[in-house]
Design goal:
19 helices, Rossmann fold, elongated, alpha/beta, 6-stranded mixed sheet, Nitrilase/N-carbamoyl-D-aminoacid amidohydrolase
Length: about 625
Amino acid sequence: MKDGFIKVAAAAPGMRLADCAFNAAAIAASARKAAEQGANLFVTPELSITGYTCGDLFFQRTLQDAAEKGVEAVLCATADLSMLIAVGAPVCHQGKLYNCAVLLYRGRILGVVPKTNLPNYDEFQELRFFSPAPAGESTAAFCGMEAPFGAGLRFVCEELPAFTLGIEICEDLWVPVSPSVAMCRDGATVIANLCASHDGSGKAAEHRALVTSHSRSCHCAYLLSNAGIGESTGELVFSGRQLVAENGVLLAETAAFSDDMAITEIDVERLATERRRTNTYPAPARMAAEPIRFSMPLRETGLTRPVAADPYLPAEPRACAEECACVFSLQTQALARRMKHIGAFSAVIGVSGGLDSTLALLAAHGAMKLLGKDASGVTAVTMPCFGTSARTRDNAGVLCKELGLTLREIPIAAAVSGHFADIGHDPANHNVTFENAQARERTQILMDLANENNGLVVGTGDLSELALGWATYNGDHMSMYGVNAGIPKTQIRKIVRWYADTCGSAPLREVLLDILDTPVSPELLPPKEGQIAQKTEDLVGPYELHDFFLYYILRWGFAPRKILRLSCYAFANEYDRATILHWMKNCYRRFLSQQYKRSCMPDGPMVGPLSLSPRGAWRMPSDAFKTAWMTELEEL
């Protein structure tokens, strides 16, 4: 439960119709198994204590009494477990019989939730046996104790208020406005659905779609515990497929006709964060009833849920390729729209033979196609100086040739040396002035060439560099349109790889693969023995780590301790904790101190989940102090 993680489990314990004692023992045994795996919440199917398909046996007082005794047996058998347990049972209340979820915790009943929407169409006849949930809340006598009774009950953990549970039953999810919508509005982050939806052709996809889409629209976690083996097959077949989704993502699913348990972790802090940042998410109703509180001491929750090292693109190759194509299309469309609007005849790009300028060239090439113009309208300018290597210089030339772009080479060593003489800088001193003078000279040339040719300077810097401030102020930091500004470095790498694999040209693919294999470098320091001397990731850290950090800093606002935990989990086979923490400190230090560069960054399209545009996505004062974050990092 620390860091907002709770472990949840959904299962259909083996059952026998109308044998409540047997079913109670099976539920208790399954609950104990879930508790041994650290579960904080365990959910069983609809009417799990009796079976859903008992028919007119529900009218028998013997079965009603047996069901109550069965729930009581589960209550006693699990009293030592610090875990919420939701059991389905028929409950007699105020002269009516209700299809209910009974929530148990440490030997007491926290609440009884009746089903609101009773299907009575096609194969369903629930109104024959049960009454719909009455309005409002009351108190029910069940298992020898008094418990809250009502369809809208919410249960909140005192130690972790973001863990607030709401319960609904089967058909409640299928109606246009489910009861859980109001529960989520009033604070529930986790919804448990005790379900008995029979299987059939297309049903698995239907269940997944319902659960994932509902969890997304309500910004909640959703558990569907479905009835399975043991139910009658006289008319229907129940397969017991269990599902757990969080905010539109399916986290766990069991196979049909298995006795497996869907068990995973829910990040309730993430859900609470999403609701706070989404101002269209409704506020609680003014007259919402107070939730029922329970105490569950915080404990470490071991992680088993998937945490992708690359949170920007899917791991599955086909899906990744589709996303790369989508992002590239957005880039090219955005650039074409900007060029058309301002009446630019050409695109001017400074090329280095590196990764970022390569993607900018590819995007500009695509934009010219969209505009119906010849690729030669893209002017690629290579400006070799003190740190330019033969490899990057040659790759830039081959790339432009294969794409049919106009390539201009303008050496800048003499101009920069003259500038050093003007300002009195010793060229043997390879300090920040030595480096930045080259970047600013290149930007001056690009701007003037654009003016000369009625063109637009296309920026090459990416989101990772903007976040870390790895750009020369008013040098490569500046352009007329930053086409890569919304794409992190790791994603750029994958888009260029996708382009290489789909371009249909062997020579173009070969040069793109060599560019991908070239170390990332600004090439501002002289080469050593002909090799690149200045490797960015040796200086600022691995981009795969920084991009991971930035995703959870910018998108979710997580604290450093939680991001460190997620990083250690996602990169367990690549970096040790000390290495990750070292680069995390560097990421925070640079990010929090470099806003002044981002505050005046050029326009650039947001094509993914993140943007640092000061006009639309990220607003931060340039003079904010970083003390709180660095203090927390030092304590880790």
